[in-house]
Design brief:
The complex is a heterodimer of chains A (about 110) and B (about 110). Chain A is about 0% helix and about 50% strand. With about 110 residues, chain A is mainly beta. Chain A is globular, with a radius of gyration of 13 Å. Classes of the chains: A mainly beta (about 110), B mainly beta (about 110).
Chain lengths: ~110, ~110
């Protein structure tokens, strides 16, 4: 158990809908990362927050947004969903910028 | 632009032998490299890392080698065990002061045959 909690574990939704994925980092970790893993793809970096502030952006679509709250949990919002958004979404946390990141078990999103 | 590449999608090794997983990178600004292991239906688990100022780091059965001139790193597992069967991801840290990213390769599926 990495200490990073992601909910829900599975999500099935229709195209055009909006969903919110939730992540609780390890106790004391200030940095939260979001990654997307599509079929046969590596882990694509989406976005990073550190202590509530956005610090780095990767290949995150404009339809996607994220935030980190004062209690350090983070949410990834995916809107106007398309079939191609079906993927595993991982959250990771680390105690400071750029050190080893500890991953949650992921949320499997299926868009039908 | 895939800055971290794992060109072998899969590798099969006999139990007790050495497993060598390879990773190439293109960005000379990476300052830290990590290996993660991932079982199905689980998140990636940190395995071992190496700073760009070193060329070798060892932890039990796992050793990571870094060749900066070739922009290449490898993970050696000796001896390989069936429980090592998993997907292995290579990752590199792009340090930018206030911003840091971990960039991952596409992974190599290791199968250790009993």
């Amino acid at each position: 158990d990495s200490g990073v909690t992601q909910t829900p574990k599975h999500l099935i939704t229709a195209t055009g809908q909006r969903v919110t994925l939730r992540c609780s980092p390890r106790s004391g970790d200030l940095s939260v990362y979001w990654y997307q893993q599509s079929l046969d793809q590596g882990l694509q970096f989406l976005i990073q927050y550190y202590n509530g502030e956005e610090r780095a952006k990767g290949n995150i679509l404009e339809r996607f947004s994220a935030q980190q709250f004062p209690d350090l949990h983070s949410e990834l919002n995916l809107s106007s969903l398309e079939l191609g958004d079906s993927a595993l979404y991982f959250c990771a946390s680390s105690p400071q910028l750029g050190t080893e990141a500890f991953f949650g078990q992921g949320t499997r999103l299926t868009v039908v | 632009d895939q800055q971290v590449k794992q060109n072998s999608p899969s590798l099969s090794v006999q139990e007790g032998r050495i497993s060598i997983l390879n990773c190439d990178y293109t960005n000379s600004m990476f300052d830290y490299f990590l290996w993660y292991k991932k079982y199905p239906a689980e998140g990636p688990t940190f395995l071992i890392s190496i700073s760009s100022i070193k060329d070798k780091n060892e932890d039990g059965r796992f050793t990571v080698f870094l060749n900066k001139s070739a922009k290449h790193l490898s993970l050696h597992i000796v001896p390989s065990q069936p429980g090592d069967s998993a997907v292995y991801f290579c990752a590199a840290r792009l340090y930018g002061g206030a911003t840091n990213k971990l960039i991952f390769g596409t992974g190599t599926l290791l199968a250790v045959q009993p």
